[in-house]
# Entry
Amino acid sequence: MKYGLVLLLSVFSFLSLKTSAALPGAEKGIIDLRNIDKKDKFILKLNGEWEFYWNKLLRPHDFKRINIRPDIYGKVPSYWIDYSGRDLKTGAKGYATYRLVILLPRGYRESLGLDMPVFDSSYDLYINDEYYGGNGLPGRSAEETKPEYRRNFIRFNPASDTIDILINVSNYSHRRGGFWLPVTLGTFEQVRKRFAGTWAAEWANISILLGFSFLFLFFFIIYPKEKAMAYFSMATIGLASRPFFTSHFLINDIVPMGWTWIVRFEYMFLYVMIVGWIWFIATVYPSKYFRLFATVMGIYFTISFFLTLFIPVSVFSYNTFILYPSMMALMIYALVKSFQGILKKNRLDIIYFSAFLLLVAGGIHDIRVSMGRSGSSFGYIMSYNVVLFVFIQAALLLYKWVRSYYEKDKLQNELEYMNRNLELLVSERTEAIRKQKEEIEKQSSRIAMQNKQLTETLQMKNKIFSVVAHDLRSPVVNILYMLNLLKEKEYREKFDTLANSSIQYAQMVISLLENMLVWGRGQEDKIRYAPARWNLADSILTNLSIFKESADKKEISVNFTQVGSSMAYIDKDLLDIVIRNLLSNAVKYTPRGGRISILLKDKSDEEGHLLLKICDNGTGIPAGKQKYLFTSTEITSTPGTENEKGTGLGLKLCYELVLINKGTISIDSKEGEGACFSITLPGQ
# Structure
């Protein structure tokens, strides 16, 4: 992973490389070399600000007859359409003159070399008033202009300490005009070596790429399932053919070719390359959406390939606005997928990620070069990066074949081992079957235990339902009886008393049903827990109002004390059930004239929780019963002081609901002296 990051930083550092900071650049149409180091051995790009004259084809004598001021100082290399602004309007087509004055050291007369790139789309070169050739025929109209692509190397001897370079450029054939690659100047031997070296490197590059492309094609022929090999071969052929029609235009060393067909073949092989790359990536990292992208782009560039044979250069050259974004999308997808593979600890993806980084670097660099926006010291480098990528791919291919061989050898050894140790394998298999049988028996025992528990649960439910049916009948009958009394005239004066009694019986029914529903959910683990910060005091007061009538009827005094904050992190609905059950029990088991005290105390500073205590001076709970009060499986109910009924579920339900709310519940009681239930709840 860390090596990938180091390589990523290295790639982008490479993309930001500029020509040496020690070498001067052109400023206001002048480049000063009078103080240059190593005068007998230097080379530099003539980048910077050149004098630019739009819609003028000026000759050297024009500058001697009249004083001519440039329209602007244009940055070179760049297309002249980039100069268009408020003060100057340039178009894609037209003609112009570039001029640069070079100041040499005093008395410098050594032979100099000039490496002239191609211009879009024709030019004439003048050095110190002398014509030194060019490409094609620049003119003031499409009829007068003849485009041509040919790399020129020029040798000249300066006759003075000043070099005046004048270039007439004309474009009526390409989508943009100007020169988008730097002009190189230096001592003759240095420039010649650079020129010859890049020329030889491109031929070597072509040979290597073509050799590997045929190698991958051969692998595909003998093993057709490996379609990635065919696509990679296709992409490599496209890249191998590209140097014939760019940079040194090596096709001219084989057969002279017109400008139009050079550009046509450049784009056609570019389409071959991009289609091959897209389908190679789609095969290595398949996905539904990228396959759709590959299909659409494959159809589009295939159609473009054939249309390029017929439509003008000035039209199909705009295809770069689709071609370059497609290349970048392709590389980004490959980087993302290989990086995802790295995160999954796939070692092959580390190699792919590094290789794709090299391709991204070359792609970005070449796009900037083709658009005239590169400030690096190199021309097109994508084909060189691809050579490295091809070597990596060949290594991966060899690795896969070696691994396949080892896998085959491993399977062969396993087969031999099985043949030699068949009896042992049968014994091992028998032992495995025995262990499986034991596991099945254990599972059968667990199932039997679960069936027993289920039977006990069903029996408990039946018992509870019988108790509930009895307890529900009594308050419902009382409610019906009181409603019938209200219909009689003689009882209408007691309306409030009868209504309050009906409400009390209804609340008993609701509480009973609510306990049953929550208990049923608890048996099925379906109790919904949704905690939030709630004011527990509000819940206490609300539930006290429910039992006020019952407490008043038994003349029970209720005292509620709050100390500190009453905010707790609880499920309000579940705590309402707990409070309601505890208050109901306190009223039920407290004798007439007794008392109930409620304490709510904030202990968040000391122990990080809230304390709730509900105490009464009622009948109390026997010591032997307290130990199993919350956990007993027996369902028993003790009548209240005035024979009030219950289901026996209340305290068990309270215990479960308090635990769900991340709290605790305990009891302190003596028989005949009352009971005190203490609950702790999280404060936040």
Notes: The two ends are 42 Å apart (CA to CA). Residues 1-21 have pLDDT under 50 and may be disordered.
